[in-house]
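pinging the channel bc i need a second pair of eyes. not urgent but kinda urgent?? the chain im working w is below, pasted from the shared doc
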Amino acid sequence: MRADASPPQAVILAGGLGTRMRPRTEHTPKFLLPVAGRPFGAWLLERLAAAGFGEVILCVGHLGDAIRGAMGERFAGMPLRYADDGPELLGTAGALRRALLHLAPVFLMTYGDSYLPFDYQAPLRDLRAHPGALGTMAVYRNEGRLDASNTAVSSDLVARYEKRRADDPPDPALDHIDYGATALRREVVEALPAGAPLGFEAVQRDLAARGRLRALPVAERFYEIGSEQGLRDLEAALTAAREGRG
């Protein structure tokens, strides 16, 4: 078990099958899909390095060796560590549990297909400032626009979390969405069953129900490459920024 990380640690969940992006992801993991002339992972790691993170844990599974080969052991000065699901995909929370020995006492978890134009350290600062909380989740007031909203916010807490599909009937109470970055205490991961497939949504739902998950509102939209439209939107945003039009 490791001591607290300074500068801070980010954990990227990059082990999914990328089924919605087939056939692109049959031989290339989502993390390495080309976006605006570079592998997506290079854009994300560059953002984390610029935000001041000192270490990244990559939780890999599907085509994980390709990610290792492309990214190596260091990126933009940050050491990269890898935690592999093994022969059976463990889901997002199961992958975190597999990475337990690498985790700092407080760390930031994000997804290997999300690109977030905000301060990635903000959830960590919020969680450290509130010792009674177990997590701080960045949330965006989505109201069903970019994807199915899944979060109800009350004051500074996530009051309810419920993962939704785009075709589920709308629930007006769920007007926010998980932005894609959550600060967590390691004890949350320690409590998970080892080796069991489990989705992170179960953790979010449980922490919210217990009143232990804080909400950090973010004003600017998120980007993701889990869909063809999402990839096109991100590519347009990155291209505009590079050309000074953003």
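so Residues 228-242 form the longest helix (15 residues). and The CA atoms of residues 65 and 97 lie 20 Å apart. — does that match what u expected or am i reading it wrong
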